[in-house]
Amino acid sequence: MTFLADSISRIKPSSTIAASQRARDLAAQGRDVIALSTGEPDFDTPENIQLAAIRALTTGKTRYTPTNGIPELREAIVQKFRRENSLEFTPQQVIVSNGGKHVIANAFLATLNPGDEVLIPAPYWVSYPELVALCGATPIVVETSAKDGLKLTPEALERHITARTKWVVLNSPSNPSGAAYTHGELSALAEVLVKHEHVWILTDDIYEHLVYDDFVFATIGQVEPRLLPRTLTMNGVSKAYAMTGWRVGYGAGPTQLVKAMDVIQGQVTSGINSVAQWAAVEALTGPQDFLGTRRQAFQERRDAVVGLLNSCEGIRCATPEGAFYVFPSCEGTYGKVSRSGKPIEDDESFALELLSEEGVAVVHGSAFGTPGHFRISYAASMTSLVGACERIRRFCANLEKGNAK
Q1: How far apart are CA 137 and CA 118, in angstroms?
Q2: Residues 146-158: what's their mean pLDDT?
Q3: Element (H, E) at 323
């Protein structure tokens, strides 16, 4: 008889963390590894934000904080939503949590019961279905297609909504694909959701500031205000502000929902790190000019990676609208054999052999619910990216050499 809860058997370890750990293990053995498996900017946290944290330390702002966040940060979040998204919230409708994942977990724990369903378009961030399963509810994966840009269509959304549907999750720009929904695409989805008043919307906007070319970011509550009474808008400072380790995420939504999330957070973690909250205040209220500079750097990396990958035999890579990921297809390598004699049968064997033979760590697409692909994070130096793509090109070129054992 096991003493572990049944919920443990319903969830799996994070595939992205596992891929990164495999890379670390190889590097510890002395292998030359280029790890492109982690979604983390390689830039430092801006200096003004670092200094704000130091000021918090030296002025005694190291005590317990309100569970839902210090008033100054919640007010800064209210102003951010008004300034950047034309969304109106009160500080009571805002909660600050230990990263965006914590916001989502709080929302699901506060609302999901066994038998409830959550619609999750694939490819999806690996934690969405696991958090749903942890709550005893059922994740319903909605497949997307390359012809639709790996984005949820109104028709697919309508087809999957049932009386049991509690939430639909939208992530734009997407992790892992980088696909982002236009204002028009969100409007078309909103037309469906307006008709189904029992369905709530969780929109994960964590990559909001990382959109490229002439793409204009929009969030669904901004596009269709009638959905705001049942929309939780999640965001944070980790990606755009290079503050992944600070662990500051936030959500804004209906007061009743946010209060319920606050109750759960109060019993599990209480308020988050006080110093990190003051740093986040500076991030949201301080100079924003560096965002454009870093966005341009990411766009240059994206363009270079897409071009290099499309020169690899058996690889097809679309150009994403945002985030810092590409999600190329590796199906053109299936049926071939690596130099070690191992067959490439699927995206997981492709990723494992690529790491083993060339020391490039990526995450296989099946981990995100979309087989036949792999994810590369281009939040790395251009030197590392070019070197990694050259290794991938070499790996693909050598696949037909050798015989299966």
Answers
A1: 8
A2: 97
A3: none
Cis peptide before 154 (omega within 30 of 0): no
Place of tokens 């509810």: 137
CA distance 202 to 170: 6
Give SS3 for 25: helix
- Residue 139, H or E segment: strand 138-143
- Distance from C-alpha of 108 to C-alpha of 116, rounded to nearest angstrom: 11
Is residue 272 over pLDDT 50? yes
Q: Name all domains of the chain by residue range, CATH numbers in brackets.
A: 6-44+290-397 (3.90.1150.10), 62-285 (3.40.640.10)
Taking a C-beta distance cutoff of 8 angstroms, is the pair 87, 252 a contact? yes
Q: List, as own/partner pairs, every contact residues 228-232 make where C-beta atoms lie below 8 angstroms and the sequence separation is at least 24, other chains included.
A: 228/87, 228/254, 229/254, 230/197, 230/199, 230/200, 230/201, 230/254, 231/200, 231/201, 231/202, 231/203, 232/103, 232/107, 232/200, 232/201, 232/202, 232/203, 232/257
**Strand partners for 328:** none
Instruction: Give the closest residue to 210 by CA, choosing from 77, 321, 79.
Output: 321
- Using CA atoms, how far residue 231 sits from 167, 219, 275, in Å, is 9, 10, 29
Bridge partners (DSSP) of residue 130 are: none
Mean pLDDT, residues 51-75: 98
Q: Tell me the backbone φ, ψ of residue 49, rounded to 5 degrees.
A: -75, -40
Q: Is the pLDDT of residue 404 over 50?
A: no
Q: Which two tokens stand for residue 198?
A: 């029992």
